[in-house]
Write a structure and sequence with these properties.
The structure is a homodimer of 496-residue chains. Chain A is of the alpha/beta class and 496 residues long. In chain A, α3 runs antiparallel to α4 and α12 crosses α13. Chain A is elongated, with a radius of gyration of 23 Å. The interface between A and B is large, with 49 and 50 residues.
Chain lengths: 496, 496
């Protein structure tokens, strides 16, 4: 499992004997792998799932459990919201850009209702209740939430509707989702081979026909008659790949099960697969959205740089990629006390002062920096306006003494949300293999690689540079299903 | 030459007959290709250079002609500057980061004096005279200039010395450099095959043994007994690759000869080569450094975001990657008139006003935005200080009415520096193949690919995410030479 693991590929002619054979071989047992296995089984294909860990779940099980769904789901309707596929598409195109995958987003938005039905049919629970204020995940078990749709500039681009469908759970819901999907996969009769780390693709001419793997130190080989589906996750746990592709993430904490080592990406690359947008990342900034939205989010010289009511992942991307994570929440006592304790994730102010002048001095900002910013903010807030960044009126009012500052880089008290490593954010990679609409992996000339499919964070999926929660479990399960269906319907490779 | 050109590789067994044979085959005739050819010839190897255009030069010939050299060159000494390899190394590590190639930078800095000698031995002219104020290239034919070494934060990291060695020319010097190098290559007896576009690498097992190519529509094949060296440039002219890897560059003008289509990168990738830092770019922002440094460089809401005395390429990267190129130079009449006309590149103020309040209104900034910024700037400038961004005192004084604003996105009058496409900047890609210290191309497992070398902008070279002028002609010629030497000394591949 070392980074230096050779990534192959192996030649079919060098493989004397396959230890196992199946129609569809799925590598990785997170949400994309589970969805691929289910769809392939439902089409009558034999399926084996390889998983490096001792059980299913992967990084999906470590996630918040939000799935981006819309176009008028029963949960949206029950909560009193109307929505269309067109508005969903327009929002995702803008929020996941620049250069998001327009064709995939269109298909994903139009297929959203059907995908919601499929998920609930597997037994995934969603509660028809709505959480209305900015948060990473609701502190309740509410099932629907905003994921940035109701913030500038997106309000002008698409009719806002909340599309964060959160798998019913207290706290993070990824574990619940994966428990349900793994049970469904087992009931569907797929073979689950745990503790099995795929090492190399096996090629017969240009066609991928299986993999070599390692189980408890011993080599094993798998033949896939119809297709291999890579669902091995991203590369945020691989320090060398992070340095090569996304150096701004170096040293930050990682949101994963610890196994996002990028080897699946490298196996495919070694056989000629294309990668794209390798520098993009989700940035789970260690910031309490309900606090940030009530104050000013400022950089190292006291300047605001974004409307604080944007989806917190957008705040995180702006903070990391544009401000090097040197950011503070500036608010007043009144705002702090307005936020119920269970929504504060254990965060307390790091500095308190009677004037912004004292506060900027305590933080170590240039003389006048915070005072100038706060004075402009307050002057406009008195008129209920934010002409700088267009935060919604609902969150705009002049800040009053006493003032407080929260150093975002110090993280949160909650271990679930807190950062390990360099403070300020936990991240995962968004870049990866380039795939078509059926999950077919594309080579650098843009042609499908016969026998090879991929879904989830091993691919770049829907994403350009932007990210919205729910689009990883979302595109992982949606395009995982499509890859499973396509592989199951592929003609058998000759036994060779 | 279409983007959809299949990138190979071809199997040796499918090639009946090679049309040409040589020891070392160089693909691309810019500065890296010329340096590789010269070094391989000097070791007695037969060399053929393939070039898609009708003559040598490539994008190197379209460049400013700055080469990053130091450690005490005769030009530095003649101009009264002392320098060390250690200071050069420390500056480059910081300026080209995060995640610059430390081993390459160390070798490049320590080899700088020898490389200067080699260049002058080929006949490259450098004039021992110094240009001292911020500029993209001196408006004179001066041979030495600052490339950001004398600006915060770098002044605290390494003893500053100017290391911009500009090939003697009025205006851009890239053409002069390439005329000299191409003449030397021809005198050295390398075969030059122009109008020849390499299409696929030819592999014999894992070893690269040649290329297929196209000349006036007809296929031709080349065998390389010792090695193939890719020096085909970056991918900024390939809109599809830009969208996949560096979407923030979409629609911007490109600094190249028009042939940076990334095909060399794709040929190597198709054979399993690794790429890195594909989102990085040089950003030739269409801004007059001598004007910017005397005023405030501000974003769309009037905020400063960098010390204006940084190397203009750094201003460009900050403006593009952090401010979406929506930036303005704010200065006063006195500053504007201080800059001699020949240093203004034809730029005139787009807005003039008696107060910053009027100016912000004319530009369309929020009410108070520019006034708040200018007031903070002036308050500190009165004390000769810039506690926000640490611009050197030399450039700090309060701005006085009347004020002027220059919209950077409107570009410059000078066609050499002006942007085509979306305004504001001309760019080229910095990401590319991952190579070792001898230019050996590395596969995704980190192992050298037998018979394959690369140098120049087809590789990611020295660079992390940052960029300083002179490091492209610099690393192209330096590691081009090393690749040429290594390929020439490689054992012959069996005729197969």
């Amino acid at each position: 499992m070392s980074r230096q693991e050779p990534a192959g590929p192996a030649d079919r002619r060098s493989v004397l004997d396959f230890d196992y054979e199946t129609d569809v071989l799925v590598i990785g047992y997170g949400c994309a792998g589970a969805a691929a296995a289910l769809e392939a089984r439902s089409r009558g294909a034999d399926v084996i799932v390889l998983e490096r860990a001792s059980g299913g779940g992967g990084s999906s099980a470590a996630s918040g459990g939000e799935i981006y769904l819309g176009a008028g789901t029963p949960i949206q309707s029950a909560c009193g919201f109307t929505d269309t596929a067109e508005d969903m598409e327009a929002y995702l195109l803008a929020a996941l850009g620049p250069s998001a995958d327009a064709a995939k987003i269109r298909m994903y938005s139009r297929g959203s209702l059907e995908h919601y039905d499929w998920l609930t049919k597997q037994g995934v629970p969603f509660k028809p209740s709505f959480w209305g204020t900015p948060s990473w995940v609701p502190p309740t078990d509410d099932g629907l939430m905003w994921l940035g749709e109701n913030a500038y500039p997106f309000t002008g681009l698409a009719k806002p509707a909340p599309r964060g469908h959160r798998v019913t759970a207290k706290g993070f819901g990824g574990k619940v989702l994966m428990d349900v999907l793994c049970r469904a996969v087992e009931e569907a009769g797929a073979g689950i081979h745990t503790d099995t780390y795929a090492t190399q693709l096996i090629l017969d001419g240009p066609r991928v026909v299986g993999v070599t793997a390692r189980r408890f130190g011993k080599p094993v080989t798998y033949r896939a008659r119809r297709g291999v589906i890579l669902t091995t996750g991203g590369f945020a746990d691989n320090a060398e790949m992070v340095a090569q592709h996304a150096p701004q993430l170096i040293g930050l904490g990682v949101t994963s099960d610890g196994g996002d080592d990028g080897h699946g990406i490298k196996m495919a690359q070694a056989a000629g697969a294309a990668v794209q947008r390798m520098s993009a990342a989700q940035v789970g900034i260690t910031l309490v959205p309900a606090l940030a939205v009530r104050g000013m989010l400022v950089n190292a010289v006291g300047q605001r740089f974004i409307n604080e009511d944007q989806y917190p992942g957008m705040l995180g991307q702006a903070a990391l990629f544009r401000q090097d994570l040197a950011v503070w929440i500036i608010l007043d006592e009144k705002s702090f006390e307005e936020v119920p304790e269970n929504e504060r994730w254990g965060v307390l102010p790091h500095y308190v002062a009677e004037t912004t002048g004292e506060l900027e001095q305590e933080i170590g900002m240039p003389d006048g920096a915070l005072t100038a910013s706060a004075s402009e903010y307050n002057r406009h807030a008195a008129a209920g306006e934010d002409p700088y960044f267009h935060k919604d009126k609902r969150w705009v009012r002049p800040l009053e003494a006493p003032f407080a500052a929260i150093d975002v880089s110090r993280g949160m008290a909650s271990p679930e949300l807190g950062a390990s490593g360099r403070g300020g954010a936990k991240v995962f990679s968004l870049g990866g293999l380039r795939t078509g609409l059926d999950g077919e992996v594309l080579d650098v000339s843009g042609s499908p690689m016969p026998g090879l499919y991929a879904a989830g964070r091993v691919t770049s999926g829907l994403h350009g540079h932007g990210y919205i929660s729910g689009t990883s479990l979302g595109d992982g399960t949606f395009f995982g299903r499509r890859a499973g269906a396509a592989a199951a319907e592929q003609a058998e490779a000759p036994a060779g």
